[in-house]
Amino acid sequence: MLEALRNAWRLPDVRNKLLITAFILLVYQFGAHVPVIGVDRTALEALLTGQAGGLVGTLNLLSGGAVRNFSVLAMGVYPYITASIILQLLIPLVPQLEAMQKEPGGQEKIQRYTFFLAIPLAILQAVGQVQIFGTLGGQPIIPGFGTDLLLTLSVIATMTAGTMFAIWLGELITEQGIGNGLSIIIFSGIVAQAPTSLAQLVTNSANPVYNIVMFVVITLISLFVIVLIYEGVRRIPVQYGKRVRGRKQYGGGSTHIPLKVNAVGMIPLIFAQSIITFPAIIVNLFPEGPVRTQITQTFGNHQGLAYWLTYFVLVVGFTYVYTDIMVAQQNLSETLQRNGGFIPGIRPGKRTQEYVQRVTRRITFVGALFLGVIAIVPGVVDFINRLLFPLEATSATSSATNAALVIGGSGLIIVVGVVIDTLRQIEAQLVMRNYDGFMN
Question: What's the pLDDT score for residue 345?
Answer without folding.
Answer: 80
